[in-house]
Design goal:
Radius of gyration: 17 Å
CATH superfamily: Vaccinia Virus protein VP39
Number of strands: 7
Strand content: 15-25%
Helix content: 40-55%
Oligomer: single chain
Distance between the termini: 45 Å
CATH topology: Rossmann fold
Strand order of the largest sheet: 3-2-1-4-5-7-6
Order of helices and strands: HHHEHEHEEHEHEE
Protein backbone atom coordinates (compact mmCIF):
# COMPACT_ATOMS: atom_id res chain seq x y z
CA UNK A 1 0.00 0.00 0.00
CA UNK A 2 2.79 2.39 0.94
CA UNK A 3 4.68 1.52 -2.22
CA UNK A 4 1.59 2.32 -4.33
CA UNK A 5 1.07 5.66 -2.53
CA UNK A 6 4.75 6.51 -2.98
CA UNK A 7 4.56 5.67 -6.69
CA UNK A 8 1.43 7.81 -7.14
CA UNK A 9 3.08 10.71 -5.28
CA UNK A 10 6.17 10.49 -7.47
CA UNK A 11 3.98 10.41 -10.60
CA UNK A 12 2.16 13.57 -9.50
CA UNK A 13 5.47 15.30 -8.78
CA UNK A 14 6.77 14.31 -12.20
CA UNK A 15 3.61 15.61 -13.91
CA UNK A 16 3.89 18.93 -12.07
CA UNK A 17 7.53 19.18 -13.10
CA UNK A 18 6.56 18.55 -16.74
CA UNK A 19 3.71 21.10 -16.54
CA UNK A 20 6.06 23.75 -15.15
CA UNK A 21 8.57 22.99 -17.89
CA UNK A 22 5.93 23.32 -20.61
CA UNK A 23 4.72 26.58 -19.02
CA UNK A 24 8.21 28.05 -19.20
CA UNK A 25 8.45 27.11 -22.86
CA UNK A 26 5.03 28.57 -23.65
CA UNK A 27 6.03 31.81 -21.94
CA UNK A 28 8.83 32.51 -24.37
CA UNK A 29 8.44 35.52 -26.65
CA UNK A 30 8.09 33.18 -29.64
CA UNK A 31 5.08 31.29 -28.28
CA UNK A 32 3.42 34.42 -26.91
CA UNK A 33 3.54 35.82 -30.43
CA UNK A 34 2.50 32.54 -32.03
CA UNK A 35 -0.44 31.78 -29.71
CA UNK A 36 -1.72 35.28 -28.99
CA UNK A 37 -0.16 37.55 -31.60
CA UNK A 38 1.31 39.63 -28.78
CA UNK A 39 4.91 40.84 -28.64
CA UNK A 40 5.93 40.43 -24.99
CA UNK A 41 9.58 41.45 -25.39
CA UNK A 42 9.03 44.61 -23.32
CA UNK A 43 7.60 42.59 -20.43
CA UNK A 44 9.32 41.86 -17.17
CA UNK A 45 8.44 38.43 -15.76
CA UNK A 46 9.70 34.87 -15.48
CA UNK A 47 6.70 33.13 -17.01
CA UNK A 48 3.09 34.21 -17.42
CA UNK A 49 1.59 31.86 -20.00
CA UNK A 50 0.35 28.36 -19.26
CA UNK A 51 -2.48 25.94 -19.96
CA UNK A 52 -5.04 28.11 -18.16
CA UNK A 53 -3.92 31.17 -20.13
CA UNK A 54 -4.47 29.33 -23.39
CA UNK A 55 -7.86 27.97 -22.32
CA UNK A 56 -9.02 31.42 -21.23
CA UNK A 57 -8.42 32.61 -24.79
CA UNK A 58 -10.77 29.88 -26.06
CA UNK A 59 -13.49 30.99 -23.62
CA UNK A 60 -13.03 34.66 -24.51
CA UNK A 61 -13.23 33.90 -28.21
CA UNK A 62 -16.50 32.03 -27.71
CA UNK A 63 -18.32 34.36 -25.33
CA UNK A 64 -17.01 37.92 -25.55
CA UNK A 65 -18.57 40.04 -28.30
CA UNK A 66 -17.00 42.99 -30.13
CA UNK A 67 -17.14 46.21 -28.09
CA UNK A 68 -17.96 44.38 -24.84
CA UNK A 69 -16.54 45.98 -21.72
CA UNK A 70 -14.11 43.59 -20.01
CA UNK A 71 -12.31 43.79 -16.67
CA UNK A 72 -9.15 41.66 -16.70
CA UNK A 73 -8.38 41.06 -13.02
CA UNK A 74 -4.76 40.22 -12.22
CA UNK A 75 -3.61 40.80 -15.77
CA UNK A 76 0.02 39.94 -15.05
CA UNK A 77 3.19 41.42 -16.49
CA UNK A 78 2.17 40.80 -20.11
CA UNK A 79 -1.55 41.78 -19.99
CA UNK A 80 -1.85 39.17 -22.69
CA UNK A 81 -5.61 38.57 -22.50
CA UNK A 82 -6.32 42.30 -22.40
CA UNK A 83 -4.16 43.01 -25.42
CA UNK A 84 -5.60 40.04 -27.33
CA UNK A 85 -9.17 41.19 -26.57
CA UNK A 86 -8.44 44.71 -27.73
CA UNK A 87 -6.69 43.71 -30.94
CA UNK A 88 -9.02 40.85 -31.93
CA UNK A 89 -12.41 41.75 -30.44
CA UNK A 90 -12.10 45.53 -30.19
CA UNK A 91 -13.24 45.12 -26.59
CA UNK A 92 -13.16 48.02 -24.15
CA UNK A 93 -10.64 46.60 -21.68
CA UNK A 94 -9.48 47.62 -18.24
CA UNK A 95 -6.64 45.51 -16.85
CA UNK A 96 -5.87 45.43 -13.13
CA UNK A 97 -2.90 44.34 -11.04
CA UNK A 98 -1.72 44.72 -7.45
CA UNK A 99 1.99 44.57 -8.33
CA UNK A 100 3.52 47.91 -9.29
CA UNK A 101 6.26 46.08 -11.20
CA UNK A 102 3.70 44.12 -13.24
CA UNK A 103 1.64 47.25 -13.89
CA UNK A 104 4.61 49.05 -15.43
CA UNK A 105 5.52 45.94 -17.43
CA UNK A 106 1.93 45.53 -18.70
CA UNK A 107 1.84 49.18 -19.77
CA UNK A 108 5.07 48.75 -21.76
CA UNK A 109 3.81 45.60 -23.49
CA UNK A 110 0.47 47.26 -24.32
CA UNK A 111 2.25 50.29 -25.76
CA UNK A 112 4.55 48.12 -27.87
CA UNK A 113 1.50 46.33 -29.29
CA UNK A 114 -0.44 49.55 -29.96
CA UNK A 115 -3.25 48.29 -27.73
CA UNK A 116 -5.33 51.03 -26.18
CA UNK A 117 -6.12 49.40 -22.86
CA UNK A 118 -6.29 50.91 -19.38
CA UNK A 119 -3.96 49.37 -16.79
CA UNK A 120 -4.74 50.28 -13.19
CA UNK A 121 -3.80 49.18 -9.69
CA UNK A 122 -6.61 47.33 -7.93
CA UNK A 123 -7.28 44.38 -5.64
CA UNK A 124 -10.15 42.51 -7.32
CA UNK A 125 -12.98 45.08 -7.64
CA UNK A 126 -11.56 47.61 -5.19
CA UNK A 127 -11.84 51.12 -6.62
CA UNK A 128 -13.45 49.87 -9.84
CA UNK A 129 -16.50 52.02 -10.55
CA UNK A 130 -17.29 51.42 -14.22
CA UNK A 131 -19.77 48.76 -15.32
CA UNK A 132 -18.50 45.74 -17.23
CA UNK A 133 -20.08 43.00 -19.29
CA UNK A 134 -17.37 40.58 -18.23
CA UNK A 135 -14.75 40.14 -15.53
CA UNK A 136 -12.07 37.51 -16.16
CA UNK A 137 -9.77 35.98 -13.57
CA UNK A 138 -7.09 33.32 -13.22
CA UNK A 139 -6.83 32.77 -9.43
CA UNK A 140 -3.32 32.53 -7.97
CA UNK A 141 -2.96 28.90 -6.84
CA UNK A 142 0.43 27.61 -5.74
CA UNK A 143 -0.84 24.09 -5.10
CA UNK A 144 -4.02 22.09 -4.59
CA UNK A 145 -3.83 22.62 -0.82
CA UNK A 146 -3.38 26.39 -1.17
CA UNK A 147 -6.54 27.53 0.62
CA UNK A 148 -5.80 31.17 -0.16
CA UNK A 149 -6.76 30.61 -3.80
CA UNK A 150 -10.26 29.42 -2.85
CA UNK A 151 -10.66 32.36 -0.45
CA UNK A 152 -9.81 34.77 -3.25
CA UNK A 153 -12.39 33.15 -5.55
CA UNK A 154 -15.01 33.45 -2.79
CA UNK A 155 -14.17 37.13 -2.25
CA UNK A 156 -14.32 37.74 -6.00
CA UNK A 157 -17.81 36.26 -6.16
CA UNK A 158 -18.97 38.26 -3.16
CA UNK A 159 -17.64 41.57 -4.52
CA UNK A 160 -18.62 41.16 -8.18
CA UNK A 161 -21.55 43.29 -9.41
CA UNK A 162 -24.63 41.14 -10.08
CA UNK A 163 -24.87 42.29 -13.70
CA UNK A 164 -21.29 41.28 -14.55
CA UNK A 165 -20.69 37.79 -15.96
CA UNK A 166 -17.46 36.12 -14.92
CA UNK A 167 -14.94 33.76 -16.44
CA UNK A 168 -12.73 31.97 -13.90
CA UNK A 169 -10.04 29.60 -15.16
CA UNK A 170 -8.09 27.08 -13.06
CA UNK A 171 -5.56 24.35 -13.72
CA UNK A 172 -6.42 20.95 -12.20
CA UNK A 173 -2.78 20.43 -11.23
CA UNK A 174 -2.93 23.45 -8.91
CA UNK A 175 -6.59 23.64 -7.88
CA UNK A 176 -9.25 21.14 -6.86
CA UNK A 177 -11.77 21.87 -9.62
CA UNK A 178 -14.59 20.21 -7.70
CA UNK A 179 -13.96 22.62 -4.84
CA UNK A 180 -13.83 25.54 -7.27
CA UNK A 181 -17.24 24.51 -8.65
CA UNK A 182 -18.66 24.14 -5.14
CA UNK A 183 -17.40 27.63 -4.27
CA UNK A 184 -19.04 29.06 -7.39
CA UNK A 185 -22.40 27.40 -6.79
CA UNK A 186 -22.28 28.06 -3.05
CA UNK A 187 -22.10 31.78 -3.68
CA UNK A 188 -25.25 32.02 -5.78
CA UNK A 189 -23.73 31.64 -9.24
CA UNK A 190 -24.78 29.39 -12.10
CA UNK A 191 -22.25 27.81 -14.45
CA UNK A 192 -23.21 28.69 -18.04
CA UNK A 193 -20.46 26.48 -19.42
CA UNK A 194 -17.25 24.83 -18.29
CA UNK A 195 -14.93 25.33 -21.26
CA UNK A 196 -12.35 22.58 -21.80
CA UNK A 197 -9.82 21.57 -24.43
CA UNK A 198 -8.15 18.30 -25.38
CA UNK A 199 -5.04 17.57 -23.28
CA UNK A 200 -5.49 20.81 -21.33
CA UNK A 201 -5.77 20.16 -17.55
CA UNK A 202 -7.64 23.44 -16.99
CA UNK A 203 -11.30 24.46 -17.00
CA UNK A 204 -12.71 27.92 -17.71
CA UNK A 205 -15.96 28.49 -15.84
CA UNK A 206 -18.32 30.95 -17.52
CA UNK A 207 -20.72 32.00 -14.78
CA UNK A 208 -23.46 34.45 -13.92
CA UNK A 209 -25.37 35.43 -10.79
CA UNK A 210 -28.57 33.54 -10.08
Amino acid sequence: MRIRQYTQLQSVKMLKFIIKGITRVLSTIFFAKLLFGVDCSAGNAGYQIGFSTILMKKALKKFVKPNDKVLDIGTGAFAIHSIWLKKNMNADVTATEISDEYIESAKRVAKDNNAGIKVVKSDLFKGIKNKFDWAIFNPPFRGREDHNGYKIIKRLLEEAPKSTKLIIVSNAFYADLKRVEETIKGNGYSIIEAVTAFLNPSKAYVIEKG
